[in-house]
Amino acid sequence: MKKNLFSLAALLLAGISMHAQEVxxxxxxxxxxxxxxxxxxxxxxxxxxxxxxxxxxxxxxxERTGMAHFFEHLLFEGTKNIPRGEWFTIVSSNGGSNNANTxxxxxYYYEVFPSNSLELGLWMxxxxxxxxxxxxxxxxxxxxxxxEEKRLRVDNQPYGNLLAEVKQYIFKKHPYKGTxxxxxxxxxxxxxxxxxxxxxxxxxxxxxxxxxxxDIDVAETKKMVQxxxxxxxxxxxxxRNFPKEDPITETITAKAYDSNIQIPAVIAAYRTPSFKERxxxxxxxxxxxxxxxxxxxxxxxxxDDKKMALQVAAVNLxxxxxxxxxxxxxxxxxxxxxxxxxxxxxxVVKIQQELISxxxxxxxxxxxxxxxxxxxSSVAGIANSLARYYMLYGDVNLINNELEIYKSITRKEMQAxxxxxxxxxxxxxxxxxxxxDDN
Length: 439
Hints:
Low-confidence stretches: 2-19
Strand order of the largest sheet: 1-2-6-3-5-4
Structural class: alpha+beta
Number of domains: 2
Distance between the termini: 40 Å
CATH class of the largest domain: Alpha Beta
Shape: globular
Order of helices and strands: HEEEHHEEHHHHHEHEEHHEEHHHHHE
Radius of gyration: 23 Å
Mean pLDDT: 92
Number of helices: 16
Strand content: 15-25%
Helix content: 40-55%
C-alpha cells in the first residue's frame, strides 16, 4: 500500500496542497456523529468513496507504537460479509481501485469506482466500520506484512531513519517523537484484545468523515449514506490531551548512523507551529524561496555556483499539533557538514535582516497560484482534500480559499516569521553519518 511515512523524500519535497477552480460541496452530520461531505462532478463517470478516521500514530499507547499503521493493513483482511482476502478482488472485479495511508494524525481509506458502483463503495466502507473481523489469523498475517514493509521502506532504505532521528530530539513530550510505522516489538507484544480495543475506541462514526465525490446524484447518495452508515452506533467520545513541548532555548547537537549510506547528511531542524497556524503558511513560503526548484536560493548557491552540495532542501513538515522545519544538505567532495550549515544559515539570516526582493516575492506568488490551478485534478484528490481540511483543519472551504492565505503573505511577514522560528538557539543540528567501522 501507498504509505505516508516520513523519509528522505519527505525532506526533499516541500509540496504545498493547492486547489484549482472552486470546488462545490455539501456537508452534514448523521445522528451517530459521522460527518458527511458530498461533491458532485458529473464530467466523468467516476466516483470516489472515502473515509478518514481521526486516529494516527500520536494516538497510540507509547508501549504499543505502530498500531494505527497496522490497522491500515488489518482492516483489509475481511468483514462479516466480505470473506478474508476478497477485498481487493471485489474492488478490481468491479473496475475499481483502492488504497489507504496513515500519518501521525489520521488514517485514510478510499475506493475509486465507475459511478454505477457507488453503492458498492459505500457498502464496503460501512462494512469496514461496522463488521470488521479482527482475529489472530489476520493479526499474524499483517504482522509479517508490516515487518517486511519496515525492512524495505525504512531499515534498508538509505536515509530511511533520518526523520525519525530528528523527531526524537525535536519532540521530548509529544507523541510526535515516535514514528508512524512504530516498533515491531510493540506489535509483537500486543494481544488480540488490545487490537480489538483499539478498533472499538477509534473506528467509530463520530471519529470519522465520509466523503463521496464524483458522478453522483446528491439526493440518491444521501439515501444510500443513511442506509449504510446511519444505523452504525456512535462510539464513546475521544478525549485528547497531549503534553505541550517546552521551548528549545539552546542548540541541540547529535549524531546518528545509517549503514545504508555512504554520503553523510546534515540537518538543521526547528520546531514549528501547527499547519492550522498562519505562521505555518509563511514558513511554506520561506521554504519555497530557499529551495523549491533549481533557481531557488540554496540550490543555485550550493549546488550550481559553489558546488558544495549534491542536494539541498528546506521544508516545513507541518502536522496537526506541531511542525518540523528542516534544512537539509548532502556534501560534495571534501566539504564539511559544518560548512554546509554555515552556508545555509547565511541565507536564513539574509531573510531575517532584509526583505526579499519584490521580484522574488511575485515569483513565489505566481508559483503558488500555478500550483493552485494544477492541483486537485482528479476526483480522488478532491475527496482527500475535503476529508483532510474537515478532519485536521476544521474548515472544509480551505479547498477553495487556501490560496488567498498565501497571496496575503507579505515580504515583511516572511522576515518576521524567519526571526521568530529560525534561530540557532531554537534548533537541532544532526549529523547523519555512515555506520561507524567497528574495527
